[in-house]
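Notes from hallway chat w/ T.B., transcribed later so I don't forget. T.B. wanted the structure written out for a chain they're using in a teaching module, and asked if we could keep both sequence and structure tokens in one place. Agreed to drop them here.
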Amino acid sequence: MILFTPGPCMTSHSVRQAAAWPDMNHHDPEYLEIVRETKSRLLGIHRGARDWVPYLLGGSGTAAVEAMVASCIDAGPVLVVENGYYSARIRDILEVHGIPYEVFRLGWMEPWTSDAIDRLDQKMGEGYEALLATHNETTLGRLNPVDEIGRRCRKHGVRCLVDAMSSFGADDLAFGNIDAVASSANKCLHGIPGLSFVLLEPSFAEEVRRYRRRSYYLSLPMYEGDAPPLTPPVPALRAFLQALHEHPGQTVRQEQYGAKMEAVRAGLGRLGLDFAVKAAESSCTLCCPTLPAGWTVERWLKANRVQGFVLYTCKGNLRDRYFQVSAMGETTPGQFDRWLEVVRGLLDL
């Protein structure tokens, strides 16, 4: 099966081999060297993050987001930028931890405008400790303007905490105006599932150490240093290091993903399909085409799966209108070309 999904994504043979190496204890000096190299390479993915503090966590990407929320907020209140399913999940996490918050809401299909940025800027002036936002709102692949949002946060003395789950390692991400980033090994970095991470700006990491502890397992200060405090997912970390060795650099990966998405948009456009979000407003990682006329989403996904291609559904009330195609993972332009031929055949065009 070829996965055109925004996680789990396709991995290379060598990454899978790395996960299958002989058993190793997490206190072994060789493992601690793997941790050190992994953190070093991770901080080198994006310019501006080299001196940040990394925390490696066993768990899905949501574990990293929850660790960031639980660890990086002192008392609140905080402001959540909500314009999709995944930013709404941040609100749910705040509810669980009893952190006071308010929501700045945009419609899932609503583009960012200068007026929207100005309204957010005005809202920030009401005395929030932090702002939380997604970078790529994976619901539709809309790239939120976190650099500009971060600049407005700086103006108001508000911390900027970013869920970069499906953008880190591919989309541009400026670190100068943000304070924390959460992401996963199994998105744009092409590791296997089960490992996630949070990066903190150094002075903010020092401040976070003084915050009260809301969680045991998801308390970021516990994960400082190279010796894991709890048993980590050793195979996933070995695989992640191999994936980081194979990462070509953020700019190159962005170009690779962009070329695949451009081909998908052009090919589906010729078949009469439209897209939920314009290319200029989108992450390079995925797009959401309209569901072909006469097809239910269940029938469409099943028909594609029978042909060897796994697609993804959209969330909420968009589920019956759009589907997702992702460029993430070890997929090739040729595989997308073959899939477009499958789509042509399914539509009988």
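Follow-up for T.B.: The longest strand covers residues 53-58. Might be a good example for the class.
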